[in-house]
Write a structure and sequence with these properties.
This protein has helices at 19-37, 58-67, 74-86, 162-170, 189-203, 251-260; strands spanning 4-11, 41-43, 89-97, 105-112, 118-123, 144-146, 149-155, 175-179, 206-210, 213-216, 219-222, 226-228, 234-237, 243-250. With 279 residues, the chain is of the alpha/beta class. The chain has a six-stranded mixed beta sheet. Strands 6-7-8-9-12-13 form a six-stranded mixed beta sheet, with helices on one face. Helix 1 packs parallel to helix 3 (74-86). The radius of gyration is 18 Å and the shape is globular. The N and C termini lie far apart (38 Å). The mean pLDDT is 96.
Length: 279
Protein backbone atom coordinates (compact mmCIF):
# COMPACT_ATOMS: atom_id res chain seq x y z
CA UNK A 1 0.00 0.00 0.00
CA UNK A 2 1.15 3.55 -0.77
CA UNK A 3 2.32 5.57 2.27
CA UNK A 4 -0.83 7.73 2.18
CA UNK A 5 -3.97 7.27 0.11
CA UNK A 6 -6.65 9.95 -0.06
CA UNK A 7 -10.09 8.40 -0.60
CA UNK A 8 -13.49 10.00 -1.12
CA UNK A 9 -16.97 8.47 -1.04
CA UNK A 10 -19.73 10.21 -2.99
CA UNK A 11 -23.09 9.83 -1.25
CA UNK A 12 -25.31 10.71 -4.20
CA UNK A 13 -29.02 10.70 -4.90
CA UNK A 14 -29.20 8.54 -8.00
CA UNK A 15 -31.92 9.51 -10.49
CA UNK A 16 -34.11 6.53 -11.32
CA UNK A 17 -33.58 5.32 -14.92
CA UNK A 18 -31.77 8.56 -15.85
CA UNK A 19 -28.40 7.27 -16.98
CA UNK A 20 -27.14 10.41 -18.71
CA UNK A 21 -27.95 12.60 -15.70
CA UNK A 22 -26.32 10.14 -13.30
CA UNK A 23 -23.16 9.79 -15.39
CA UNK A 24 -22.83 13.57 -15.66
CA UNK A 25 -23.16 13.84 -11.89
CA UNK A 26 -20.43 11.22 -11.47
CA UNK A 27 -18.11 12.99 -13.90
CA UNK A 28 -18.69 16.37 -12.23
CA UNK A 29 -18.02 14.82 -8.83
CA UNK A 30 -14.70 13.40 -10.03
CA UNK A 31 -13.62 16.84 -11.25
CA UNK A 32 -14.74 18.54 -8.03
CA UNK A 33 -13.07 16.03 -5.70
CA UNK A 34 -9.81 15.98 -7.60
CA UNK A 35 -9.68 19.78 -7.51
CA UNK A 36 -10.65 20.16 -3.84
CA UNK A 37 -9.25 17.00 -2.21
CA UNK A 38 -6.71 15.65 -4.73
CA UNK A 39 -8.07 12.17 -4.04
CA UNK A 40 -6.31 9.01 -5.20
CA UNK A 41 -9.50 6.95 -5.12
CA UNK A 42 -13.17 7.98 -5.49
CA UNK A 43 -16.00 5.57 -4.64
CA UNK A 44 -19.62 5.78 -5.84
CA UNK A 45 -22.66 3.72 -4.69
CA UNK A 46 -24.19 0.53 -6.00
CA UNK A 47 -26.20 0.85 -9.26
CA UNK A 48 -25.10 4.44 -9.82
CA UNK A 49 -26.04 4.35 -13.49
CA UNK A 50 -29.75 3.52 -13.27
CA UNK A 51 -30.85 3.49 -9.64
CA UNK A 52 -32.43 0.63 -7.73
CA UNK A 53 -34.96 -1.99 -8.86
CA UNK A 54 -38.61 -2.25 -7.80
CA UNK A 55 -40.87 -5.17 -6.96
CA UNK A 56 -41.28 -7.83 -9.66
CA UNK A 57 -42.55 -5.95 -12.71
CA UNK A 58 -41.87 -7.05 -16.28
CA UNK A 59 -42.52 -3.61 -17.81
CA UNK A 60 -40.14 -1.93 -15.38
CA UNK A 61 -37.70 -4.79 -15.89
CA UNK A 62 -37.61 -4.11 -19.62
CA UNK A 63 -36.96 -0.40 -18.99
CA UNK A 64 -34.32 -1.14 -16.36
CA UNK A 65 -32.52 -3.54 -18.67
CA UNK A 66 -32.39 -0.83 -21.36
CA UNK A 67 -30.53 1.39 -18.86
CA UNK A 68 -27.87 -1.27 -18.28
CA UNK A 69 -24.64 -1.50 -20.27
CA UNK A 70 -21.86 -3.92 -21.07
CA UNK A 71 -18.48 -3.75 -19.31
CA UNK A 72 -16.50 -2.39 -21.03
CA UNK A 73 -19.12 -0.21 -22.66
CA UNK A 74 -20.27 3.34 -23.20
CA UNK A 75 -20.62 4.16 -19.50
CA UNK A 76 -17.25 2.78 -18.41
CA UNK A 77 -15.59 4.42 -21.42
CA UNK A 78 -17.15 7.77 -20.49
CA UNK A 79 -16.16 7.56 -16.82
CA UNK A 80 -12.77 6.14 -17.81
CA UNK A 81 -12.02 9.27 -19.85
CA UNK A 82 -12.78 11.39 -16.77
CA UNK A 83 -10.63 9.17 -14.56
CA UNK A 84 -7.77 9.56 -17.02
CA UNK A 85 -8.25 13.33 -17.31
CA UNK A 86 -7.97 13.75 -13.55
CA UNK A 87 -5.55 10.91 -12.82
CA UNK A 88 -7.66 9.07 -10.26
CA UNK A 89 -8.93 5.57 -9.44
CA UNK A 90 -12.73 5.21 -9.51
CA UNK A 91 -15.01 2.50 -8.11
CA UNK A 92 -18.57 2.63 -9.40
CA UNK A 93 -21.64 0.39 -9.20
CA UNK A 94 -23.41 -0.47 -12.47
CA UNK A 95 -26.23 -2.62 -13.78
CA UNK A 96 -24.30 -4.75 -16.28
CA UNK A 97 -25.70 -6.56 -19.30
CA UNK A 98 -24.66 -10.20 -19.44
CA UNK A 99 -22.11 -10.52 -22.28
CA UNK A 100 -23.94 -13.46 -23.90
CA UNK A 101 -27.50 -13.86 -22.56
CA UNK A 102 -29.97 -11.12 -23.61
CA UNK A 103 -32.22 -9.76 -20.86
CA UNK A 104 -29.89 -10.99 -18.13
CA UNK A 105 -28.08 -8.68 -15.70
CA UNK A 106 -25.27 -8.59 -13.19
CA UNK A 107 -25.13 -6.12 -10.31
CA UNK A 108 -21.51 -5.03 -10.70
CA UNK A 109 -18.75 -2.94 -9.19
CA UNK A 110 -16.03 -1.67 -11.53
CA UNK A 111 -12.54 -0.43 -10.67
CA UNK A 112 -11.11 2.02 -13.22
CA UNK A 113 -7.51 3.25 -13.05
CA UNK A 114 -5.95 6.68 -13.74
CA UNK A 115 -5.26 5.62 -17.33
CA UNK A 116 -9.00 5.18 -17.82
CA UNK A 117 -8.66 1.41 -18.08
CA UNK A 118 -10.74 -1.22 -16.28
CA UNK A 119 -8.70 -2.95 -13.58
CA UNK A 120 -11.42 -5.34 -12.44
CA UNK A 121 -15.12 -6.12 -12.15
CA UNK A 122 -16.83 -7.63 -9.11
CA UNK A 123 -20.26 -9.20 -9.57
CA UNK A 124 -22.59 -9.18 -6.57
CA UNK A 125 -22.60 -12.72 -5.20
CA UNK A 126 -25.36 -12.61 -2.58
CA UNK A 127 -28.67 -11.55 -4.16
CA UNK A 128 -31.46 -10.60 -1.70
CA UNK A 129 -35.22 -10.23 -1.98
CA UNK A 130 -36.68 -8.71 -5.14
CA UNK A 131 -33.22 -8.42 -6.68
CA UNK A 132 -33.47 -12.12 -7.53
CA UNK A 133 -35.92 -11.19 -10.30
CA UNK A 134 -33.35 -8.87 -11.91
CA UNK A 135 -29.79 -10.12 -11.30
CA UNK A 136 -27.86 -13.36 -11.46
CA UNK A 137 -25.22 -14.13 -8.88
CA UNK A 138 -21.55 -13.60 -9.56
CA UNK A 139 -18.84 -16.18 -8.93
CA UNK A 140 -15.70 -14.06 -8.57
CA UNK A 141 -14.09 -12.72 -5.42
CA UNK A 142 -10.91 -10.97 -6.46
CA UNK A 143 -8.22 -8.63 -5.16
CA UNK A 144 -6.73 -6.01 -7.48
CA UNK A 145 -3.14 -4.86 -6.99
CA UNK A 146 -2.63 -1.21 -7.88
CA UNK A 147 0.04 1.40 -7.22
CA UNK A 148 -2.01 2.80 -4.30
CA UNK A 149 -2.68 -0.56 -2.67
CA UNK A 150 -4.54 -3.82 -3.11
CA UNK A 151 -8.23 -3.07 -3.56
CA UNK A 152 -11.28 -5.29 -3.13
CA UNK A 153 -14.95 -4.57 -3.77
CA UNK A 154 -18.19 -5.81 -2.24
CA UNK A 155 -21.75 -4.90 -3.16
CA UNK A 156 -24.36 -4.22 -0.47
CA UNK A 157 -25.63 -7.60 0.87
CA UNK A 158 -22.20 -9.15 0.22
CA UNK A 159 -21.00 -7.12 3.20
CA UNK A 160 -23.18 -9.14 5.59
CA UNK A 161 -21.19 -12.30 4.86
CA UNK A 162 -17.89 -12.20 6.78
CA UNK A 163 -16.64 -15.22 4.80
CA UNK A 164 -16.67 -13.07 1.65
CA UNK A 165 -14.63 -10.26 3.18
CA UNK A 166 -12.20 -12.66 4.85
CA UNK A 167 -11.56 -14.29 1.47
CA UNK A 168 -10.67 -10.89 0.04
CA UNK A 169 -8.37 -10.21 3.01
CA UNK A 170 -6.58 -13.54 2.48
CA UNK A 171 -6.07 -12.53 -1.15
CA UNK A 172 -4.23 -9.43 0.07
CA UNK A 173 -6.85 -6.66 0.14
CA UNK A 174 -5.78 -3.58 2.09
CA UNK A 175 -8.59 -1.22 1.02
CA UNK A 176 -12.10 -2.62 0.75
CA UNK A 177 -14.67 -0.57 -1.16
CA UNK A 178 -18.16 -1.52 0.00
CA UNK A 179 -20.84 0.01 -2.22
CA UNK A 180 -24.46 0.04 -1.10
CA UNK A 181 -28.08 0.76 -1.86
CA UNK A 182 -29.08 0.05 1.74
CA UNK A 183 -32.71 1.15 2.30
CA UNK A 184 -34.37 2.38 5.45
CA UNK A 185 -37.43 0.09 5.39
CA UNK A 186 -35.63 -2.84 6.99
CA UNK A 187 -32.38 -1.42 8.32
CA UNK A 188 -31.39 1.24 10.86
CA UNK A 189 -28.61 3.57 9.66
CA UNK A 190 -26.38 2.20 12.41
CA UNK A 191 -26.33 -1.21 10.70
CA UNK A 192 -24.17 0.02 7.82
CA UNK A 193 -21.80 1.65 10.30
CA UNK A 194 -21.60 -1.50 12.44
CA UNK A 195 -20.93 -3.77 9.46
CA UNK A 196 -18.23 -1.45 8.13
CA UNK A 197 -16.40 -1.20 11.45
CA UNK A 198 -16.64 -4.95 12.06
CA UNK A 199 -15.38 -5.96 8.60
CA UNK A 200 -12.49 -3.51 9.03
CA UNK A 201 -11.50 -4.68 12.50
CA UNK A 202 -11.81 -8.43 11.92
CA UNK A 203 -9.57 -8.16 8.84
CA UNK A 204 -7.36 -5.25 9.90
CA UNK A 205 -8.06 -3.39 6.67
CA UNK A 206 -9.32 0.02 5.61
CA UNK A 207 -12.98 0.05 4.52
CA UNK A 208 -14.75 2.69 2.44
CA UNK A 209 -18.53 2.24 2.69
CA UNK A 210 -20.45 4.32 0.15
CA UNK A 211 -24.25 4.28 0.40
CA UNK A 212 -26.74 6.42 -1.50
CA UNK A 213 -29.60 8.73 -0.56
CA UNK A 214 -32.88 9.60 -2.27
CA UNK A 215 -36.04 7.68 -3.17
CA UNK A 216 -36.74 5.16 -5.94
CA UNK A 217 -40.45 4.34 -6.07
CA UNK A 218 -41.44 3.21 -2.58
CA UNK A 219 -37.88 2.74 -1.33
CA UNK A 220 -35.79 5.42 0.34
CA UNK A 221 -32.09 5.24 1.15
CA UNK A 222 -30.53 6.67 4.29
CA UNK A 223 -26.89 7.35 3.40
CA UNK A 224 -24.62 7.24 6.48
CA UNK A 225 -21.55 6.45 4.37
CA UNK A 226 -18.40 5.94 6.44
CA UNK A 227 -14.66 5.39 6.07
CA UNK A 228 -13.11 3.13 8.72
CA UNK A 229 -9.55 2.55 9.84
CA UNK A 230 -8.26 -1.03 10.44
CA UNK A 231 -9.68 -1.26 13.97
CA UNK A 232 -13.12 0.16 13.26
CA UNK A 233 -12.59 3.82 14.10
CA UNK A 234 -14.39 6.13 11.68
CA UNK A 235 -12.16 8.56 9.81
CA UNK A 236 -15.16 10.21 8.12
CA UNK A 237 -18.95 9.92 8.41
CA UNK A 238 -21.93 11.22 6.42
CA UNK A 239 -25.48 11.98 7.42
CA UNK A 240 -28.64 11.49 5.37
CA UNK A 241 -28.11 14.03 2.59
CA UNK A 242 -26.04 14.26 -0.57
CA UNK A 243 -22.43 14.83 0.41
CA UNK A 244 -18.83 13.80 -0.13
CA UNK A 245 -16.66 12.41 2.66
CA UNK A 246 -12.87 12.17 2.45
CA UNK A 247 -10.13 10.59 4.57
CA UNK A 248 -6.42 9.85 4.37
CA UNK A 249 -5.44 6.19 4.77
CA UNK A 250 -1.94 5.62 6.15
CA UNK A 251 0.07 2.52 5.36
CA UNK A 252 1.92 2.68 8.68
CA UNK A 253 -1.35 2.37 10.60
CA UNK A 254 -2.36 -0.70 8.61
CA UNK A 255 1.03 -2.35 9.26
CA UNK A 256 1.04 -1.47 12.96
CA UNK A 257 -2.41 -2.94 13.54
CA UNK A 258 -1.68 -6.13 11.60
CA UNK A 259 1.57 -6.67 13.47
CA UNK A 260 -0.02 -5.87 16.83
CA UNK A 261 -2.82 -8.41 16.29
CA UNK A 262 -1.79 -11.13 13.84
CA UNK A 263 -5.24 -12.37 12.91
CA UNK A 264 -4.05 -14.17 9.79
CA UNK A 265 -1.36 -16.12 11.62
CA UNK A 266 -3.76 -17.04 14.43
CA UNK A 267 -6.52 -18.44 12.22
CA UNK A 268 -7.41 -22.14 12.59
CA UNK A 269 -8.77 -23.06 9.13
CA UNK A 270 -8.74 -26.77 10.00
CA UNK A 271 -11.52 -26.00 12.49
CA UNK A 272 -13.79 -24.23 9.99
CA UNK A 273 -14.90 -27.10 7.75
CA UNK A 274 -18.46 -26.76 9.07
CA UNK A 275 -18.70 -23.52 7.07
CA UNK A 276 -18.56 -25.57 3.88
CA UNK A 277 -21.71 -27.56 4.68
CA UNK A 278 -24.90 -26.78 2.83
CA UNK A 279 -27.67 -26.08 5.31
Amino acid sequence: MKDQVVVSAVQMSTKWLEVEENVNYIKNSIAKIKKEENADLIVFPELSNAGYIKERDKVFGRKFTKMADTIPGRITNDIGKQAKKYGVYVVIGLAELHPEIPGTLYNSAVLIDPKGEIVGVQHKMHIPGEEKHYFISGTNCDAYRTDIGTIGMSICYDGQFPEFTRTLALKGVEILCMIWNMPSFSNPPELLEHITATRAAENRMYVVSCNRVGIDGKIDFFGHSVISDPVGNFLAKAGEEETIITATLKEEVLMEERLQQSIFRDRKPEMYSYLLKNM
